[in-house]
Amino acid sequence: MPATPDHATTLPLSRITVLDLTLARAGPTCVRHLADWGANVIRIEPPSTGGEDIGGPRDGPDFQNLHRNKRAIRLDLKAPEGRKAFMRLAVRADVIVENMRASVKHRLRIAYDDVRGINPRIVYGSISGFGQDGPYSGRPGVDQIAQGLGGLMSITGLPGQGPVRVGIPIADLTAGNLLAFGIMTALFERETTGLGRWVQTSLLEAQVFMLDFQAARWLMAGEVAGQAGNDHPTAIPTGVFPASDAPINLAASSGRQWERFCEAVERPDWLARPDWQTQKGRSEDRVALNAAIADVTRTRPAAVWIELLTEAGIPCGPVNDIEHVFADPQVKHLGIARPVTHPRLGEQQVVASPLNFSGVAKDIRMAAPDISADTEAVLAEVGYSAADIAALRERGVI
Fold first, then answer.
1. Which helix (H) or strand (E) holds 309?
2. Could you tell me if 36 and 69 are in contact, meaning their C-beta atoms sit under 8 angstroms apart?
3. Which one is catalytic: 20, 36, 94, 172?
4. If residue 205 lies in a helix (H) or strand (E), which one and from where to where?
5. What pLDDT, on the 0 to 100 scale, is given for residue 5?
6. Residue 208, exposed/middle/buried by CB under 10 A (0-12, 13-18, 19+)?
C-alpha cells in the first residue's frame, strides 16, 4: 500500500503499513512507536466517535500527543460495506493493532483468524484488560483497575496510607510499549517464515510484569512487599531528603557509596556504627538513619548538595514538577519535546520518542489528523473510485 507523498521513506519502519483500530491509551501508545519510526499508520475510527476519544477532545494535548504521525479515516465496521473496505485494506497491510474487549473483534469478524485467511503475513496485535480468555476476559478493563488488581497500589504511597495509584497510567503505557516490542519481534520472525502471528498482552499482564523485583521477592522468598513511601524498598539510604530550600533525591545504598556519602557530608562517625555498616542493617534501621541524614541535608540548599554529592559520585538530583522537567538543561539537550505544526492549531509541542537511532532524525512529521482527513485518499489507494467513495459516504459507511 503506497504511503502519502510526505511520508518519510528513510525511517526504519517506512515499508510497514499499520491499520490502527485502537482507542483510549494502551493501543495508541503501541501504535505511536510504530508511527514515530516511519510506519504508514492508518487510524480507522468509527463514524460515531465525533470529536472526542477517551483521551479527551481531539484538539486537546492528550489526543494530539498520542496520534501524531498517523493518517485517519472513518469506517463503520458494523456495516457490510465497511467490513469489506477494512478487509481490502487488511490484505495489503503488515500490522493490525486493536484493544477492543476480547469478544468485539470476533463479533465484527475482523479478528486474527478472519484476517489471516486473506493475508497470512499479517501481524495482529491485541491489548485487552485481562487477557483474551480466562475468567476475567469479558470484563472491561482500564488502567486503575489493573493497578489495583496487579498489586501496584498496595506498594505505592506511605506506610499505612492505604492504596495509592501511580500518577501516570502505567499499566496502559507498559502494555502499549510491550505490544510494540512484540509486534517488532513477530515482524522480524516473518522475515524468515513469511508468516505473521497474533501477538497479545493485557493491562493485567503488563502490570504484574512491572512489579519486577517486588514480584520476585514473593515468588522466590515469600516476601509480601508493603508501602515504603519515597524510600527504596530494600536499598537504604535511597529516598527524598529535605534541603534548606527544596527536597532532593539521593541514593547511597551500596557499601562504597555509603562510605563516599559519609565522607561528603562530613559524618565519618556513621561509618563506625555497627548497625549501619551493612545494607541490611541500614535498611532495618531506616527510620533513624533517614532522620539523621535529614538533619544534615536540611542545613544547605539543594543545589549545593547536588553539586557536592555529584562530585563524590553519589546519585542525586532535584525533585522537579513537570514545568521544571522541561526547563532542565539535560532534558532540553535530549530534545524530547519536539515541535509540530497542526494545520488548524498552529505550532505545538509533543513528547518525542525516547529512542535514538544513529543517523536517523526523530522529528515529528505530522500532527494528529482531523476526523476523516484521509478517508478518500486511503480508499483510493486500495482501488475505490470517486463514485464508490461517494456512495459509501451517502450510506454513512464512511
1. helix 302-311
2. yes
3. 172
4. helix 203-211
5. 39
6. middle
What confidence score (pLDDT) does residue 54 get? 53
Q: pTM here?
A: 0.94
Would residue 172 show up in a list of annotated catalytic residues for this protein?
yes
Looking at residue 1, its pLDDT comes to 59
How far is C-alpha 202 from the geometric centre of its chain's CA atoms? 13
CB 140 within 8 Å of CB 101: yes
Q: How many residues does the chain have?
A: 398
Structural domains in the chain? 17-210+335-394 (3.40.50.10540), 238-242+247-318 (3.30.1540.10)
Beta bridge partners of 241: 248
pLDDT score, position 6: 46
Q: What is the mean pLDDT of each run of 10 residues along the chain (398 residues)?
A: 53 97 97 98 84 72 97 97 98 98 94 98 98 95 98 97 98 98 98 98 98 98 97 95 98 96 98 95 96 98 98 98 98 97 97 96 95 97 97 96
User: 152, exposed or middle or buried, with CB in 10 Å at 0-12, 13-18, 19+?
Assistant: buried
Q: What residue type is assigned to position 146 of the chain?
A: A
Residue ranges in 160-201 assigned as alpha helix (H): 170-193
CB 250 within 8 A of CB 319: no
HSE-up (13 A, CA, CB side) for residue 211: 24
* Rounded Cα–Cα distance for residues 135 and 171 (Å): 20
Cell numbers representing residue 318 in the block:
532535584
Give the burial class of 41: count Cβ atoms within 10 A of its Cβ; 0-12 exposed, 13-18 middle, 19 or more buried.
buried
Residue 258 has what pLDDT?
97
The pLDDT score that the predictor gives to residue 8 is 52
Question: Alpha-carbon distance 87 to 77, whole Å?
Answer: 10
pLDDT score, position 9: 65
Which backbone phi and psi does 142 adopt, to 5 degrees? Answer: -130, 170
Give me the residue label for grid cell 537511532. Answer: 357
Give the three-state DSSP class for 64.
helix
Residue 328 half-sphere exposure toward CB, CA atoms < 13 A: 15
Strand partners, 96: 19, 124
Its sign, for the CA torsion 250, 255, 258, 260, is negative
